[in-house]
Amino acid sequence: MRSIQMTTKPKAGRKERIDLSYDYAVCAWARHFNVSEKKVKEAVAAVGDDADRVREHLQHARSSERPSSH
Predict the structure, then answer these.
(1) Residue 52 CB partners (closer than 8 Å, separation 6+)
(2) CA–CA gap between residue 19 and residue 14 (Å, rounded)
(3) DSSP per residue, 10-29
(4) Which long-range contacts (CB under 8 A, 24 or more apart) does 52-56 make?
(5) Cβ-contact 8, 1 below 8 angstroms
(6) Per-residue pLDDT tens for 29-68?
(7) Quick one: CA dihedral 30, 35, 37, 43, positive or negative?
(8) What pairs with residue 17 in β-bridges?
(9) How far is CA 11 from CA 7, 14, 15, 16, in A?
(10) pTM score
(11) What is the DSSP letter of 2?
């Protein structure tokens, strides 16, 4: 009798991709990053669809935004 071993561990090196062709996916990523859908689309246009790169881009954009002093 053969036994089948199942693993739940994700494959090493697998990258998450952001697919802009589905509105619901863009909405989900926007919620995930706590930004607007427009910002997600702009970030993907700037750095590609790799979620880690988009995250870094959005964090950098936030840190460079400074409130105006009046």
Answers:
(1) 15, 16
(2) 15
(3) PPTT---B--TT-HHHHHHH
(4) 52/15, 52/16, 54/18, 54/29
(5) no
(6) 999 999 999 999 999 999 999 999 999 999 999 888 866 6
(7) negative
(8) 50
(9) 10, 6, 9, 12
(10) 0.73
(11) -
pLDDT at 65: 80
What is the model's pLDDT at position 67?
65
* Helix (H), strand (E) counts: the chain: 3, 0
Domain range summary for the chain, segments of one domain joined by +: 23-63
Question: CA–CA separation, 30 vs 20, rounded Å?
Answer: 11
How many other CB atoms are there within 10 angstroms of residue 65's CB atom?
A: 7
**Category of 14 on φ-ψ map: left (φ > 0), alpha (ψ -120 to 50) or beta:** beta
